[in-house]
Amino acid sequence: MRKHLTCPYHAWSYDSQGAFVHAPSKEHFEGFDFAGCRLKRLPCAERDGLIWVRADVNAGETGIDI
């Protein structure tokens, strides 16, 4: 199991609890709140090899009807 989740596009990293760990060239983001930056839990489901995510934090864990 990996220790960090890393975005393949931006290369920002987060720990397994969703807390921000690292961003390359962090100095270019002056004023950005890295301490408050974290991943949000979203409802998701896997169906037939595809992962479906509902980008609605208010949907709850059962917010996906597939």
Brief overview:
The protein is mainly β.
CA radius of gyration is 15 Å
Shape, principal axes of CA atoms: globular
| Alpha-beta classification | mainly beta
Q: Report low-confidence residues grouped into runs of 5 or more.
A: none
Tally of strands: 5
Q: What is the arithmetic mean of pLDDT?
A: 85
Written overview of the protein:
With 66 residues, the protein is mainly β. Helices cover 0% and strands 26% of the residues. The strands form two sheets. Strands 1-2-3 form a three-stranded antiparallel beta sheet, with no helix packed on it. Strands 4-5 form a two-stranded antiparallel sheet. A hairpin with a 6-residue loop joins strand 1 and strand 2. The radius of gyration is 15 Å and the shape is globular. The model has no long low-confidence stretch (mean pLDDT 85).
